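Please check our next protein.
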Amino acid sequence: MRLWSGAPYWLLRDGLIDPGPLPLRDCDVAVVGAGITGALLADALTAVGLSVTVIDRRPPAEGSTAACTGILTYEIDVELAELAERVGELRAVRAYRAAVEGVRMMAGLALSLPAACGFAWLPSIYFANKASDAERLSREADLRIKAGIDVEYLSHADLMSLYGIPAAAALRTHFAAVIDPVRLTRQLLDRAQAAGAVMCPDTTLLGWSAEREMVTVETSRGSMRARRIVFATGYETPPSLPGNYVRLHSSYALATQPLGAADAAAANFIAWNTERPYTYFRPAEGHRVVIGGADVPFRNARLRDRLLPSRVRALEQRLTTFFPVAHAGTEFAWAGTFGATADGLPYVGAVPNLERALFALGYGGNGIVFSVLAAHILRDVILGEGHEYLDLFSFDRPQ
């Protein structure tokens, strides 16, 4: 077994990328972050004719993108019923419908790329971690059905016969998918560069300042000017952002050795559970499966990585609950840092007193889905247009 910090098997399989130093360029939009969110932004902005420069202190896709789940689902980490209690049923349903739209947008985007990026539709199984959760899942199913959202309630007998999962109940949706986040990011950046974007890896942001209609961006490789600066930095929240919007967690995952053909075919679903923090499961290329979770509060990277062997053992034990017939050993394991918000939603848009700065901070288990929504929301904001979902994800939204 190989243990890695922030580098899962798909990053290693696809190989590292080093585009080399490129000159900074003044532009309409400076994007800070070359992970999946920055790539989605660069692609969306160049598609409408805006000039873009992307900077990142790492090579592309080597931050939290490399360690993310690659799961695309409308299911927010906070259940619809709980979110409705927090913000009201109307806003909660709008948030879930926005996530549905994000999954649909990601499917279309994947199909628009010139090469495969591991996209596949799969059923998603959200199952009860304990028997007492079954009644709550039944009410959750009723609320989603009322809102016109794809879901069905599965009994214990259904789960055992269909998936072999020994849980009391579950919710199943067929509107979910998986994707390779690294290949997706690289293809989006390639397309953005073909449309004129400048990609500057190994370039650290040192500071920025706004003056009238421009922003001066200082980096480790010099300065540039832009009309807007957009932060797509994930959990690495820029110091200039006021407030405490996110809780950081150390998260762990493993990929098994290849399964037999029959077992691999039987593992063709996504699963996660009602435990908090939850554990998730997904199939992966090469007849493998990935299981992740075992989260602990983040303190520092050194402690996160030191816990990796013990967290992997915990995930190996949990794998038998998600997929009882899996007997393959662990081939790869990795750790990453992720953020979570109180309501399970991202933060997208402007912050008072930070003129000409915008943020696309997608958190939680479906961060990719929120990132594609953020890219389109901020594209419209930069073009001076409104967007129907902007208020849902704003920094001053009700909690």
